[in-house]
Amino acid sequence: MLKIAYHPRYNHPLPPGHRFPMEKYELLPKQLLYEGTCSEKNFFKPDFASEEYILNVHDTDYFNRLKNLELSKKEIRQSGFPLSKELVDREMIIAGGTIKSVLYSLENGISFNIAGGTHHAYTDRAEGFCLLHDQAIAARYLQQHKLAQKILIVDLDVHQGNGTAEIFQDDPSVFTFSMHGKGNYPFKKEQSDLDIEVPDGSGDATYLKLLKDTLPGLIEQENPDFIFYLSGVDILETDKLGRLSCSINGCKERDRFVLQTCHDLEIPVQCSMGGGYSKEIRFIIDAHANTYRLAKEIYF
């Protein structure tokens, strides 16, 4: 059965006019239930990630200052969010959801977190709407419990996974692959194990060719026994922050290729949603929902 981490606290209230679309975390499960892609049995309510697992990734001083709401004004500004206990709790619940998800992936081949994909969070700082790195925390969990030896992180959000690159820069057991917009944030990029910078305005054909020419060979080369997939939908032409001009069908084909590849090679995959900032929320929800529709079609 497809299992999906969802918690009501994912939809954290933000000040009026804030550009981050928190409402998508409430609307997406409603859409999946309404259309019959999922039932209530598919969803589970995650717990807080243990501090032990968080500290496998994040600096102790940073995490203590974060949970005690002691970040500097500059650090809070870099995070993109007004800091609050509720927000820190939300990030710990998201990380807990991704940890639990990987166990379902090992059991069923695939799992999802409605939130997550917090790939801008560094070892020692928050950045770009990301305070704690959920997939990195879950990757370390897999390693600690000897559930995976070689991990591949496939990050197809329009923004480079700079935090992912920094966290795993000296760890050959985790291969970081980021395919992102060349002209997009972050403007000072880190070095992943493999970075592909996609030119502005590339569109479906160029984007999909780059992905299809890269991913199978990369998997053959690295031979991972677990894959994390960050399936951001900010590659869409409707996205306010993305510049790649991909259609919703192109985004769906991207997800189909990644999930079909993982399925055919029998490599467990955990999917976190990542970004999506289209002006009309319906485009964000439909694009994200496609990923779940495809998972059900391919796996179940």
UniProtKB/TrEMBL annotation:
The keyword Hydrolase applies. Residues 18-280 form the Histone deacetylase domain. Belongs to the histone deacetylase family. One of its GO terms (biological process) is epigenetic regulation of gene expression. GO terms for molecular function: histone deacetylase activity; hydrolase activity. SUPFAM superfamilies: Arginase/deacetylase. It comes from the Bacteria. This is Acetoin utilization deacetylase AcuC. It comes from Salegentibacter echinorum. Keywords: Hydrolase. Gene3D superfamilies: Histone deacetylase domain. InterPro entries: HDAC_classIV, HDACs, His_deacetylse_dom, His_deacetylse_dom_sf, Ureohydrolase_dom_sf. It holds the Pfam family Hist_deacetyl.
